[in-house]
Design a protein that fits this description.
This protein has 108 residues and is mainly alpha-helical. The protein contains 3 helices and 2 strands, in the order ββααα.
Length: 108
């Protein structure tokens, strides 16, 4: 529920839908920026290998998640949903990190 200016509770489904649309548009924009940056910054095979290592790490984590889910007796639908969510979360974080690096730097 969302509280209106009058202090009344209103149905939040419209707000949720608008938030989801905004998030999807922002992620699309950030993905475009990230791909443009990759095209500009990856010049050598070594840099391309670094990118491949990053995606290999994502894949390894997904396989670990699958193994744990199988041990727990999860259904295929649950496992697929978990893997999709994990990959989406990791890719979203990578995109945000590429476009907003100041948010991810640690201060000493």
């Amino acid at each position: 529920m969302v509280i209106s200016e009058e202090g009344q509770f209103v149905d939040s489904s419209s707000f949720d839908a608008l938030s989801n649309i905004y998030y999807e548009q922002e992620m699309s924009y950030l993905l475009c920026l990230t791909l443009q940056r990759l095209e500009e910054e990856i010049d050598t095979p070594a840099e391309l290998q670094d990118l491949q290592a990053l995606f290999d790490g994502m894949s390894a984590q997904s396989f670990s998640l699958i193994g744990e889910a199988i041990k727990a007796g999860s259904t295929t639908a649950v496992v697929v949903s978990q893997v999709k969510q994990q990959m989406n979360d990791e890719l979203s974080q990578l995109i945000r990190q590429a476009n907003y690096p100041e948010l991810f730097t640690q201060s000493n």
